[in-house]
Design a protein that fits this description.
Helix content is 44%, strand content 14%. The chain is α/β, with parallel strands linked by helices and 274 residues long. The chain folds into two domains: 11-215, P-loop containing nucleotide triphosphate hydrolases (Rossmann fold), CATH 3.40.50.300; 220-273. Strands 2-1-4-5-6-3-7 form a seven-stranded mixed sheet. Strand 4 (109-113), helix 4 (122-129) and strand 5 (135-140) form a beta-alpha-beta unit. Helix 2 packs across helix 3 (90-102) and helix 8 packs across helix 9 (259-273). The relative contact order is 0.14.
């Protein structure tokens, strides 16, 4: 009976959760926002790789790290947009930097992931955390907005500090495959002027990110450096010559070079060379 009552209590708390307080956010470093339940799911560990495995992006890591540390220290800091080629480590960069910074923040820095589909309700989230004595980074991964979407206006308002006034304890870190986050499909005839006006408004959203970092597909030398780094990390027992040959063959089969392709290649070797 006691176990049954406990399950009922947990179900009720899930369905009608109390507003979070500072104590609630002590329980984890990362959370996922679930607006339908007005609830924050706790994430026990931020899924990422060790920051030392990120190759070819030393300047980008340094820039985001300095910005994040300034934010933790209560100094002025920028919202961050990382955009560009698929699989080049945009999300990994942000999560790795935040995880490293959080470990040194005396439990003061928290990351809240917001799904692309929930961006239009981000004002509900801000109302819940505005008086919490913590630093929050709202993480929006792989975002983009099609022509008929209006949820970008909510994000734009957050970046401007328009919702609930400027909040000193919140920043937005986002990733996208699109530099300006939005489709740039042109209108025709009488629609062109309206399209041009809407485009100006839409393109302005990327200007709200004080730090904008672009990632491009890596060349073969960088790709092989990433492969070697992962091979060392996973203790793959293979000669460098054979590793490079197989990595190039894998890259040709996949039709692209990226950090993601490099990691997938190493995972494919583990059963044979571990």
């Amino acid at each position: 009976m006691e176990e049954y009552l406990k399950r009922i209590a947990n179900s009720l708390e899930r369905a009608f959760p109390p507003d979070p307080d500072s104590f609630f956010f002590e329980k984890a470093d990362a959370f996922i926002w679930e607006p339908a339940q007005n609830y924050f799911s706790q994430v026990s560990d931020i899924s990422t790789v060790d920051i030392s495995l990120l190759k070819g992006m030393d300047e980008e890591i340094e820039q985001v790290t300095f910005n994040t540390e300034a934010f933790i220290e209560g100094k002025l800091a920028n919202n961050v947009l990382v955009w560009g080629a698929r699989g080049m480590g945009k999300s990994t960069l942000i999560k790795a930097v935040i995880k490293a910074a959080s470990s040194k923040s005396n439990n003061n820095l928290k990351i809240i992931e917001v799904s692309r589909d929930d961006i239009g309700q981000v004002d509900k989230l801000l109302k819940l955390i505005k008086n919490i004595n913590k630093k929050f980074i709202i993480f929006c991964d792989d975002i983009s907005f099609d022509d008929n979407e209006t949820s970008y206006k909510s994000l734009k308002s957050v970046l401007d500090g328009g919702l609930i006034g400027g909040m000193q304890n919140v920043l937005v870190y986002a990733t996208s495959n699109r530099r300006h986050l939005l489709s740039r499909k042109a209108g025709n005839g009488d629609d062109f002027i309206r399209w041009e006006e809407e485009l100006d408004e839409r393109l302005s959203i990327s200007d709200r990110f004080g730090i904008s970092i672009g990632f491009y597909e890596c060349d073969q030398n960088l790709y092989l450096e990433i492969v070697r780094s992962y091979a060392e990390s996973f203790a793959v027992d293979i000669s460098l010559k054979e590793l490079s040959q197989k990595a190039i063959e894998w890259q040709v089969q996949r039709g692209s070079r990226s950090g993601r392709v490099a990691k997938q290649f190493i995972v494919s070797l583990l059963s044979r060379y571990k």
